[in-house]
Amino acid sequence: HPEPRVASILSSHYNPEFIVNVKETGKILFVDYTDLKNLKTVEIEAERFLHDGGFDSTKRYFLVAANARGKIAVVDTKEDKLTALIETGGETPHPGRGANFSHPVYGPVWSTSHLGDESVALIGTDPEGHPDQAWKVVDSFYALGGGSLFIKTHPNSTHLYVDAPLNPDAEVSASVAVFDITAMGGDPDVDPEFTTLPIGEWAGIAEGQPRVVQPEFNKEGTEVWFSVWNGKEQESAIVVVDDKTLELKKVIKDPRLVTPTGKFNVLNTRDDIY
User: Fold this and answer.
1) pTM as predicted
2) 10-residue mean pLDDT series, the chain (274 residues)
3) Cα–Cα distance measured from residue 82 to residue 65, given in angstroms and rounded to the nearest whole number
């Protein structure tokens, strides 16, 4: 390929290896870093246009979006091999790191939202405890709208947050959908209801089109921090919400906050908690 790019890179929890996702080639590389002068590499054929992704709750399996192909590639980081290629049924999956939680019916799942439509897909990730659901889309339902970049929860939370910052509708792009995980059922024909949080309105920004993006938990899982994007010359903000009550806790504004993004809690990032 004339210009293969590394779309994402992370470290294995099982082996002294980096997991390297090469976007245009669809190759996932396991790079053994124990001897930097004589690198050993395992190359896995996945699917083209790899982008971002994250681990399942056990941190053994890595799930990454081949977003232009509408698929999720699953690799086993303990055995260094391809486990599955899964069609999400949605348009352009964009999980960020995804979101892990235990579904009341389907057990452990990893979830992704989509750039191209309003759907959220749940993929079973427990081949031992729930083999019939493993590496399949067990449920798909609608959130606020297309244009989603991040989906997030926390082990101490019962809420699933889905943003939609690239949606063309100003009201949608300034809001976030929140699902109650404990209320999710097993009927594929019945979508779970969600609560809409008007994060942009809470930020109190008068000019521009505020776009709310990237829910990120604090380390305790009690607060969710949202970035409120805006134009370069306009006001941006970070909005903090109480996860238990879903009420506004704090609005942070500063001239140095210019379209804030990439705000990751250090503990959650280090331990791959999402």
Assistant:
1) 0.96
2) 92 97 97 97 96 97 97 98 98 97 98 98 97 97 97 98 97 98 93 97 94 98 98 96 98 96 93 96
3) 14
